[in-house]
């Protein structure tokens, strides 16, 4: 079938199980070296991911992208299957915006406390927590249909 040649399967897995599994024409991930777009028949590749959104253009919903907040991990593309293994991942529709905003505020307070106490380890942890919260907020606001 000609149409099947332009389709890839995208699945996202966390330690809690499968978060996402759909057929797509395009997936865009944020790697340690920048954004990477993957389409069907892409050469095999493995790439480390950073905190950011994964955008998936599904074949069953042209013109619409699902957005998933991912907190690091890695992506492997092989045989028209794009597998993402992440510490955590949430679809835009599943993100509680109130909780994400509260997490952002907590992280900002932790950053200020760590700076005042000159605690570099806590500062780094708080900065990562802030990145995760901002990513979740961005994904929720950008991908409400996700």
From TrEMBL:
<protein>
    <recommendedName>
        <fullName>ATP synthase epsilon chain</fullName>
    </recommendedName>
</protein>
<keyword id="KW-0406">Ion transport</keyword>
<dbReference type="Pfam" id="PF00401">
    <property type="entry name" value="ATP-synt_DE"/>
</dbReference>
<keyword id="KW-0375">Hydrogen ion transport</keyword>
<keyword id="KW-0813">Transport</keyword>
<dbReference type="InterPro" id="IPR036771">
    <property type="entry name" value="ATPsynth_dsu/esu_N"/>
</dbReference>
<comment type="similarity">
    <text>Belongs to the ATPase epsilon chain family.</text>
</comment>
<feature type="coiled-coil region">
    <location>
        <begin position="97"/>
        <end position="124"/>
    </location>
</feature>
<dbReference type="InterPro" id="IPR001469">
    <property type="entry name" value="ATP_synth_F1_dsu/esu"/>
</dbReference>
<dbReference type="InterPro" id="IPR036794">
    <property type="entry name" value="ATP_F1_dsu/esu_C_sf"/>
</dbReference>
<feature type="domain" description="ATP synthase epsilon subunit C-terminal">
    <location>
        <begin position="94"/>
        <end position="139"/>
    </location>
</feature>
<keyword id="KW-0175">Coiled coil</keyword>
<keyword id="KW-0066">ATP synthesis</keyword>
<dbReference type="InterPro" id="IPR020547">
    <property type="entry name" value="ATP_synth_F1_esu_C"/>
</dbReference>
<keyword id="KW-0472">Membrane</keyword>
<feature type="domain" description="ATP synthase F1 complex delta/epsilon subunit N-terminal">
    <location>
        <begin position="8"/>
        <end position="89"/>
    </location>
</feature>
<dbReference type="InterPro" id="IPR020546">
    <property type="entry name" value="ATP_synth_F1_dsu/esu_N"/>
</dbReference>
<keyword id="KW-1003">Cell membrane</keyword>
<comment type="subunit">
    <text>F-type ATPases have 2 components, CF(1) - the catalytic core - and CF(0) - the membrane proton channel. CF(1) has five subunits: alpha(3), beta(3), gamma(1), delta(1), epsilon(1). CF(0) has three main subunits: a, b and c.</text>
</comment>
<dbReference type="Pfam" id="PF02823">
    <property type="entry name" value="ATP-synt_DE_N"/>
</dbReference>
<keyword id="KW-0139">CF(1)</keyword>
<comment type="function">
    <text>Produces ATP from ADP in the presence of a proton gradient across the membrane.</text>
</comment>
């Amino acid at each position: 079938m000609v149409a099947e040649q332009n389709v890839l399967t995208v699945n996202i897995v966390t330690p809690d199980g499968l978060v996402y599994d759909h057929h797509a024409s395009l997936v865009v991930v944020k790697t340690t070296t920048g954004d990477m777009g993957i389409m069907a028949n892409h050469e095999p590749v493995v790439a480390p991911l950073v905190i950011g959104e994964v955008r998936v253009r599904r074949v069953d919903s042209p013109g619409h992208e699902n957005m998933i907040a991912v907190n690091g991990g890695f992506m492997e593309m092989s045989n028209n299957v794009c597998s993402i293994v992440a510490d955590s991942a949430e679809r835009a529709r599943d993100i509680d915006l109130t909780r994400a905003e509260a997490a952002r505020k907590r992280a900002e307070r932790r950053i200020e406390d760590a700076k005042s106490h000159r605690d570099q380890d806590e500062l780094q942890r708080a900065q990562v927590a802030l990145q995760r919260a901002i990513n979740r907020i961005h994904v929720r606001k950008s991908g409400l249909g996700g």
